[in-house]
Amino acid sequence: MAKNITNKTLIDLHSCMVRIRRFEEEAGKLMEDGKIPGALHLYVGQEAVAAGVMAHLSNKDQITSTHRGHGHVIAKGGQFAPMFAELYGKSTGYCKGKGGSMHISNMALGILGANGIVGGGPPIAMGAAFSNKFRKTKQVAVTFFGDGASNEGSFHEAANMAALYQLPCVFVCENNGFGEYTRQTNHQAVTDVADRAAGYGMPGVVVDGMDVMAVYEAAEAAIKRARAGDGPTLLECKTYRYYDHVGVRGMGLTYRTDEEVDAWKQRDAIHSFEALLLKQGVLTAKKIENVYARANDEIKEGVAFAESSPFPTTEDLLEDVYFVGAAS
Amino acid sequence: MSEALKDGPRMLPYVSAITEGVRQVLQEQDNAFVAGEDVGQAGSVFGYYQGLLDEFGDRRIVDTPISEKGIIGLGVGAAATGCRPIIDIMFMDFLGECMDEVANQMAKMRFMFGGGATLPVTVLTMAGAGMNLAAQHSQSWEAFLAHLPGVKVLMPSNAYDAKGMIIAASRDDNPVFVVMNKMSLAMQAEVPEEMYEVPIGKAAIVREGAAFSIFAMGRMVHEALAAAKTLEGLGVDCEVVDVRSIQPFDSETAVASIKKTHRALVVHEAVRFGGFGGEIVAQLQEEAFDYLDAPIARVGAPFSPVPYSPALEKLYIPNAERIVAEVKKVLGI
């Protein structure tokens, strides 16, 4: 266990991961039940990455997320009610129902959007980091992307420019082993995406993305470095997606074996962290139970809010295409 | 300099009008900066940022790598977080390198976020054929951009508009593309020294006429004016409308013109098929069908990439002669 880490931080990390997992499990069910339209890309299995990184960011710091973005939004401070409302396509959602799962965002929380385009986030985060440096703030921009996105030119261009300008930017690669349904070994010749950092002139770090403390510590170093004006870092977190690329299923599919999924689940980030916290006496079984109970209450309230909220109307359709009014 | 010259109109070439517009924007807006390929040390390959690096320093005149995805991404991310970037895409053709950042990110971010994001970003880019730069440095892609809900598209045909549109674009809280023309850089026009805006969404009647309307875009405005002169000799009194604002399109001015003249032609340098002229024709027949005395003619480039050979390029680019021929065809003269 890291030194100087308070019990409160440990408890927050745990609670964050539990909230993400429960939200996603419920969202998956609601999608399968036909209550949530469209496509959800669920974050179950990868919770340690969002929790461990976001612990070092304030609302003023920016992130860009991915199509698998609910976990990032929750870890950045997203509330369940407007999130569920967004997934339901309701006018009370974070994006008034216009963005949905793949574009869920909240500028007040520093979330520059989940993104339906693989590799869409890195150039935008680099731009936000440029802005932070230009405006002489101490804000940091973090871009989350997958192993798949690390093959997009947009990632390459953003990484090169972030390093060139020494921007307060952190590139967090969530390597979950698959670009959609294609195994990493079939989509890139490198094993560690972090190896690519050398090509941009920035440090590359690999951590166990199933170990929230490892992510927390590595992210702390990268974000501190960025905030100090020492430039970007590429932080690769090796993790795993329990569910399918889209939706829930996850088991009994041909592109990976059930044994493989089970082996990763043996190293589950939440369960192993709970064992650690119990052993350390930071949490009791009862307290852990309460964390789940609170998440479940939040889900109940959030879903009820979403279901009772109105859909957007004709008047909303053409709103927000352009900024209308006096320029700022 | 004689007193008469001093008091005469202040003439500036298009290229200097761009420089002056950008300079004044940078002076006015502390959170504005220019970023793009060769904008700093080189002062742009077209020369319109000459001197700005010395004047504003490399914090505000930012040379970038040749990375259009990164450049547009920089503009989007910076605009969403409190800056007012002026992004330079050297040749419009290079938008192909960053179509995702333009079409899926910049254009849609505000809407996708339910109005949560505001993107005051200006993109300056250079279009047009005529310099034997061949198929990948000569195109006019304004119709691509106009088809994207969320961006505005302007085409200055002259130096006055170039400066005024850059200022208007930079003060607008939306992504605005200013599509300039490389063949017009030396063209002079009267350009006031003070800051002024050319209003976004307003066409300009650059020649009044009663018998025929020519709607022209970008450099084609000058070809249309030349055609109008020739047609005047044939007894045809042409009105020439500089469309100027492609998105939003000023249908009001267009409809008013057709109600007066009852006959029209649209001309743009872009390929005719699927070009913005088709949209103008469609709107005119929707709004003013009863006022039309003849089908609306279209002049544009043929359906081929821009050719390299001077001999072919000359045949390719629409010009006054072609406009005259089409107008005569419509009138049966």
Indicate the multimeric state: heterodimer
Q: How are the strands of the biggest sheet of chain B laid out side by side?
A: 3-2-4-5-7-6-12
Number of domains of chain B: 2
Q: What proportion of the residues of chain A is helical, as a percent range?
A: 40-55%
> Count the strands of chain A?
7
Characterize the structure shown.
The complex is a heterodimer of chains A (328) and B (333). Chain A is of the alpha/beta class. Chain A has one domain: Thiamin diphosphate (ThDP)-binding fold, Pyr/PP domains (Rossmann fold), CATH 3.40.50.970. Chain A is 45% helix and 9% strand. Chain A contains 13 helices and 7 strands. Chain A has helices spanning 7-32, 47-54, 70-75, 80-87, 121-134, 153-164, 184-187, 197-200, 212-227, 258-266, 269-280, 285-308, 314-317, and strands at residues 62-64, 141-146, 169-175, 178-179, 182-183, 204-208, 233-238. In chain A, the strands form 2 sheets. Chain A has a 5-stranded parallel β-sheet, with helices on both faces. A two-stranded antiparallel sheet of chain A has the order 4-5. Chain B has 333 residues and is of the alpha/beta class. Chain B has a 7-stranded mixed β-sheet with strand order 3-2-4-5-7-6-12, with helices on both faces. The N and C termini of chain B lie far apart (50 Å). At the A-B interface, helix 5 and helix 6 of A face helix 4, helix 5 and helix 6 of B.
